[in-house]
UniProtKB/TrEMBL annotation:
Domain Heparinase II/III-like C-terminal: 382-640
Signal peptide stretch: 1-28
Protein name: Heparinase II/III family protein
Main location: periplasm
Subcellular location as annotated: Periplasm
Source species of the chain: Rheinheimera baltica
Domain Alginate lyase: 72-290
Amino acid sequence: MNTPILLSKLKSLTLIIFTLVLSCSVQASHPNLVITQADVLDMRKAINEQGRFATAYKNLKAKVDLQMALPIEVPVPKDGGGGYTHERHKKNYQLMYDAGILFQLSQDKTYADYVRNMLLAYAQLYPTLELHPARKVKSQNSGKLFWQSLNEAVWLVHTIQAYDFVYGALSAQDIKRIETNLLKPVALFLSEGQPSTFNKVHNHGTWATAGVGMAGYVMNEPEWVEKALYDLEKSGKGGFLKQLDELFSPQGYYNEGPYYQRYALLPFVTFAKAIDNNDPQRKIFQYRDGIVLKAIDTTIQLSYSGLFFPINDAIKSKGIDTIELVHGVALAYSLTKEPGYLDIAKQQNQIILSGNGLKVAQALDQGLAAPYPFISVAFGDGSDGKQGALVIMRSQLAGDQAVLFKPAAQGLGHGHFDKLTWQFYDQTKEIVSDYGAARFLNVEAKFGGRYLPENESYAKQTVAHNTVVVDETSHFDGDVEVGNANAPVLSYFETSSRGTVSSAKIDTAYQGVELKRTMALVNLTELEKTIVLDVFDVVASGEHQLDLPLHYQGQLIDMNFALSVSTDQLSALGAKNGYQHLWLKGRGLPEQGLAKVSWLNENGRFYTHTSLVNGQEEFLFTQLGANDPHFNLRNEQAFVRRVNNKKQHQFISVLEPHGEYNPGKEYTLDAASQVTQLSYSQQGEVMLINITIAGVSYLIAINQVPDGSIKQNFQYQDQSFSINSRLAVFALNDDEE
């Protein structure tokens, strides 16, 4: 035979053999996303041993077996969020994921066949679909299976993992049908079909890039992976890495707030793990100084008593047991072996069937958990960490207490117009509250489960929060773009054994008005009490009406000033910017001195808000629910401190937890406020608050000197004092700090 021809045939044969070997190796490498073959081998061993992991496996198997006994349903999409078809498709992707992992662990092909049959049903349906019939008319991100493409991306993130689990059990014909008619069209629809969403630095973009990138790894489409990482043009101006750059501060705080940090966490954690397994040379968990791990840890810190702080568009019932953080905690423990993460995992009480989940389960079985260290911290906002901050103050002196102070950035479209607002938590309950989102999530009867109109007309408006409102107009005049372009300045933050103090300011919320707020959670160790100190300064170029609302949870008990109350007819507090939703129920004008308002929370504790007033502050007592024809809003209470025609004003107050009410055992303790004196003065850069509480006189000094020399000396009541920090507390009775 001619030598060149022989060499040509040998080369062709070699290429064929190489292709076959590569094909076999690719097939053998599945699963190759979050869970690897090495993980599978370890997990198969663990399900035959005693422990949390085996229990979780048995529980999931029993649950999935019940579902698999029912007919597969892949309905034509019809409903919005919360409707039957919407929920059915959500249930389907979770079932496929669960059945897929059960196949890997049990090696029972019944589970693979179930996933195969459902994927084939979707492959038959998907090519017939137009945009979803329940989509928003003006929406730029409509889905096909779901009313918005965000849900479609979530579907793909789960479904591509299910496909990865069963890939090795599928025939070549099935693979072709599933990829050609379903998975590739979904991936292309979410990327090339919606470039504005795919390239967007936003949680919608995060889910889309994660789903498409993971599909690229499974279906050997490296170009998809590159586009998912760097945007459709691979310019680096968008994509997954840009989202890691811009959506998180250097400390791992997510710009949209805790609720959306929790939601966005799953695609970040899941895609990062897939990247690490497939492209370890990218060192994704070292990217930006370990930003993925920081984001997980920060998500935990952004919670109190198991629930996330409800700022911005938040559903208040979401907490650390959410599945996104279950995956996050499992990854964090796998990377660090920090025992505090096991404490959170124990509280979550959910073991996921993955390599990371196995490590958590085994460590919990060995009793390695240690208390997670919740701390007082200021999380810088914005990609550079300098666009304000979200401040958490904590104390364990009188029970588990926390103040959330919000001199943070706007938070994109989910942000609320509430610069320098605050919330207070005590004994597991929210005391000074924030409304969160006006939405009944997935309750289709309430506006299709979407955000209610009142989310815009009330929940986002400044009066719905605990911060100053100028002339009944919301911050930035309710303009999101202006809000996103302007953030408060965090002047300082400090924490010590005496408490935590922080101050911030902003001069762009209103033209010609500077707002400055200083807050402190102060430990009065001699009394084993804490108080919240609040000093709000407003300085303007012209005269304005200034309102400072305080929204509280509980039953109003008493106030120390006369109140004129509307008992048979109510009117709204105002006409717009959220005021139209507040019934005005009563009003009072306290005399100069101390104005006190007390309420009782469901935790059985009393709270008194004591204000230092000059005789010109009117107190307006409100109840939410005016101009709400569909009863969409919760009936919540507030009182508003109001002054008129002011160029400058200082709102000074103290919140005091006290006493106990036990109706079951029929006793009440210390129902009355123990604050008997409150005064304010300023010496240079030192703010001085003299408070007498429970017979003890304290001088609280807050050092506001700009960065530089912090030590300050001052005189008070013919005594010499020195402060070498931001916050000092002196018990004047015995002259000791």
